[in-house]
Amino acid sequence: MEIKSTKAIPQEAFDWYDSYAHGGMDRRTFIAKLGSLVALGYSMSVLTSALLPNYALAEQVSFNDADIKATYVNFDSPSGHGKGRGYLVEPVNTQGPLPVVLVVHENRGLNPYIEDVARRLAKAGFIAFAPDALFPLGGYPGNDDEGRQMQSTLDRSKIEEDFVAAAEFLKANPRSNGKLGAVGFCFGGYIVNYLAAYKPDLLQAGVPFYGTPAEKTLRANIKAPLLIQLAELDERVNATWPEYEQDLIAAKVTYTMQMYSKANHGFHNDSTARFDEVNAELAWQRTLAFFDKYVR
């Protein structure tokens, strides 16, 4: 896989992108700030191509891999948007009940990177299901900017209920062993934390990547073991960790926090220059080992 170099890109560019991607600034401001780096000798095309996703880089497991079967399936979500849809990926050569893992996307819908994460889990012997929060609006539109704007228009409480319904749908899969894990990235990391707190018997293990916690009033409910994956340079999310940790301790939750040195928010996403190959692989192997321990 081709890995983009981040050496020529200053850290403030990554920080600006994080702010832009999470509603802290609009696109015009983001591009204007990048323009200030052009005056210092950086190429705008290099900056934008590195910071904005190229999903051709993100495929590690082909959709037609012989070891898996991938389909899109609908599920009921009576407390959410009524109906949901997601990407279900199953191992085809594994017998018996299997562990199931919910895969939760970032704040822009079910993009190709998240679909690939689901396929990676299926290759590792899990049944994986990745819902698309944008299904009520027609689904992921094919680009992250539009997807981000679309997701921002949806009622967040209904999105949360859609993911609760998706988790229940997956756990009831006929091939499920009855044990549910969840992994999510950014907004998806928040959803993993939320699921663990909102319905404490639903999850048997959660792995939030750089996700903020559920609201404080819910945290005492958490029962599931958590593997918290954080990036050293992600000041926005990391600022929430000290209080969250104290709440996990108070609730006697089994948890491990892993902080990845010199990594940016989004370091596991291999479609942008924030991708950190070494840390991403380490975090992924820890994720698989965690699920093997608690849901296998």
Structure in words:
With 296 residues, the chain is an alpha/beta fold. The chain has two domains: 41 residues, no CATH class; 235 residues, 3-Layer(aba) Sandwich (Rossmann fold), CATH 3.40.50. The chain has ten helices and eight strands. Strand 3, helix 4 and strand 4 form a beta-alpha-beta unit. Helix 1 runs antiparallel to helix 2.
Keywords:
296 residues; alpha/beta; Rossmann fold; eight-stranded mixed beta sheet; 10 helices; 8 strands
Give a brief outline of the structure.
The protein folds into 2 domains: 11-51, no CATH class; 60-294, Alpha/Beta hydrolase fold, catalytic domain (Rossmann fold).
Note the topology.
Elements: H1 11-21, H2 27-38, H3 44-51, E1 68-77, E2 82-91, E3 98-104, H4 112-123, E4 127-131, H5 144-152, H6 156-171, E5 176-185, H7 187-198, E6 205-209, E7 226-231, H8 235-238, H9 241-250, E8 255-260, H10 277-294
Parallel strand pairs: 3-4, 3-5, 5-6, 6-7, 7-8
Antiparallel strand pairs: 1-2, 2-4
